[in-house]
Hints:
- The protein is α+β, with helices and mostly antiparallel strands.
- Among the domains are: 67-187, Dipeptide-binding Protein, domain 1 (Alpha-Beta Complex), CATH 3.90.76.10; 288-511, Dipeptide-binding Protein, domain 3.
- Helices cover 26% and strands 20% of the residues.
- It contains 15 helices and 21 strands.
- Strands 1-9-10-11-2 form a five-stranded mixed β-sheet, with no helix packed on it. Strands 5-6-8-7 form a four-stranded antiparallel β-sheet, covered by helices on one side. The chain has a four-stranded antiparallel β-sheet with strand order 12-17-13-16.
- The longest helix has 18 residues, at 391-408.
- It is globular, with a radius of gyration of 23 Å.
Amino acid sequence: MRRASLILLPALAATVLVGCGKGNFSEKASEGKSNTFRYPISSEITSLDPSKVQDGDTIDALQQVFEGLVKWDEKNQVVPNIAEKWEISPDGKTYTFTLKAGVKFHNGRVVTADDFKYTLERESDPLFGSETASSYMSVIDGFDEKFTKKAKEIRGVKAIDATHLAITTVKPCPYFLGLVTYPNYWVVCKEALDPGKEITNVKQMIGTGPYKAETYRERQQLNLISNKDYRDGGPKIDRIERPIVKDPPTRLNMFKSGQLDLTRIERQDIAGLASDPKFKDQVKYFERPALYYVGLNCTTYAPFKNRDVRRAFAMAIDSQKIVDDILGGTTADAKCPVAKSILPPSVLGFRTNAAALPFNVAEAKKLLAVAGYPDGKGLPTLTLYHRDGQTDVERVAVAIVTQLRQNLGIDCNTKMVPWGQYLDKHNKHDLEFFHMRWSADYLDPQNFLSLLLSTTGAENKINYSNPAYDALCAKADMMVGNDAERLKLYAQAEDMVLQDAPFIPIYIEKDAELISPRVHGLRESVFGHLPHNTVSLE
Length: 538
């Protein structure tokens, strides 16, 4: 995710600042930065609207400004946020949230249950065009009818009074509270918005969080200022500055020169930093519930309709070698784990004995020949797409196509695409072969197996369809009160899709970050850094 009254400075109040720079950070680090937390965004911000956001970098920025009913804590548990408590009906389908008294938007207005209803109704409007609403809201009773223009409102969302909101699901949903942590459920301020339109400037970014958006220079920088009236106490720092810096060496040099307090680092830089007495103790590692994988689109590239072809590809990729050669580190703590399952560690139902296909070039060659493509002959030229801004992703993509050329004789190349364009093509199911990351939004197998790979899964961008798989997931998705049986069903489904191989796991994400010793009070969940209202700077 992954997760301000936005008041502009007077001179900027009429418009957002738009620039044409490429991530340059022009302000001097020494001027007025002592209480400013500075860390970069490695790709363009995809949206200023929580109803539209799809990527982890942007979610990390927006979670400082917007909030929802519930949130993740440092123990990876769902806990109250704007809601102080909730009750679940005996049939497991209705959640009644009681809002905390006096929670205010950045413009000073008190948040009510009607604001949450407005937020959910806004996102379910098909004309609004949220790319994420169906993924995280379709379980709500009446959402589909609203989303397909068959109803004017969601019947399962009711503002009972100012402080009580009831949400009813179409079926028992054991992972529902995890869904409610996602940005689609972060409340927005209706009087700041253009009806039916996306948030496009900081004046509209009025949330309830510990920071307010101050300025946004497109493709350059987002600045936040502390919300001194935040209900849990104002942040200890004055500002957060998020320069957009796509180039990894530039990010590293900015940190070394004192222009950044925190930055993600690429694997190729770990060895040098680990041997540098100045920076070695500032390198920190965080294993995430996130999977890097290769997606094989089962409709847009005709050979991928054949199970034997997909299995041949999976068995010709040596994930262990990729991890050892590209994603390793100087110590065991630094090394990314090889993915031998779809579910990452820390996600409910993770297994060490999932039925992943082994690396076996001889068997892969046989399968490809049986499919009618001996030594890769007859296969149309194939392109492996990947995002920009991350050297590790690019290097892994190159390693994958190199192995496919060497092991199967496949004519295969890579293509790097700017992140926004990549997401657009991905959303349209236009990528026939791609290297991608999926990070847990909540720690339930439904978030991977059903959402990504079932026929009706909103995030199924590879057009995989298997009725037997769908039946297993559908049964597990609504099973309440019997976790053992539920996880058994998901395990059967996971083994089935691993054997079908439309989706090839490569490695589990382990972030490597440089964190300045002047930064104190960072809080973590497995999803990433939590909002920075506890951060202080020396």
